[in-house]
Prior knowledge:
Layout: E1 2-7, H1 13-24, E2 29-34, H2 39-45, E3 51-54, H3 61-65, E4 72-75, H4 85-90, E5 94-97, H5 103-118, E6 134-138, H6 142-153, E7 157-161, H7 167-172, E8 176-177, H8 181-186, E9 190-193, H9 207-210, E10 218-221, H10 230-239, E11 244-247, H11 254-261, E12 265-267, H12 277-297
Parallel strand pairs: 1-2, 1-3, 3-4, 4-5, 6-7, 6-9, 7-8, 9-10, 10-11, 11-12
Helix pairs in contact: 1-12, 5-6
Amino acid sequence: MKVLVATQKPFAPVAxxxxxxxLAAEGHEVLMLEKYAGQSDLEAAVADVxxxxxxxxxxxxxxxxxxxxxxxxxxxxxxYDNVDLAAATAAGVVVMNTPGQNANAVAELAVAMMIFMARxxxxxxxxxxxxxxxxxxxxxxxxxxxxxQKAAAxxxxxRALDPFLSAEQISAAGAEPVTSLEExxxxxxxxxxxxxxxxxxxGSIGYELITRMPKGATLINTARKEVIDEAGLExxxxxxxxxxxxxxxxxDNIAAMQEKFGLRVFATPKKMGAQTSEANINAGLxxxxxxxxxxxxxxxxxxxxx
Length: 306
């Protein structure tokens, strides 16, 4: 089978070598498409491949249509909103992610952002400590739980909400369960978002939720920018000059917000949650193993378009 590794942001060389070794051991041929210029390059490269490994690369309906032999796409990472699941399903293409492989990298970034904002972006201005404060975690999966563990180690109180977990499961994983988003936001000095971008969550965090937060609170988003109602966020920051916002991907209106709100707003230039050498290697090797298992035994354990 031909496996295409398509990455505008390439894997580390050691990860590429590992991917090749894992797949070659099962008799698969690995093709590389790195730092490509645009979607047309990707569409041209998939004409004869049975499998793909991607990172943040967009697998659109056009890409899937251009790949008549394609059987599986693995997104090396947790989020998979860059893949057209409907088109993949219609074409009989299995889509997988690699949950947990980037989790620690994202969790460390969330905690770093929290401290960065607490200390006024490391300027000489007087900041505050996070010990003794309360962190609310929206979605208590692989990343959320690691954020909770790290926050607890810093002396913080941890509260969490996850619609897919019972109160008992959240408690057993080290957090105080809450029953509603309103309660979570209202009681959190820091609120860390870890939800995916879905039709139900896009634009779901806006003015009403954000302004429920306590005086001096900080909202931290290392998930997807699409889950934020950016107009609502901007209005909340206008009406509540005590609030802060930090994100791992810049809002569309970041320039205007930084001009208005200064050090109360921060965003990374590009999404960097998974940009560590360890996460890079872990996710790439996991993707290769999943493809090998899929073709060898039909393993679909991490399929997301069921």
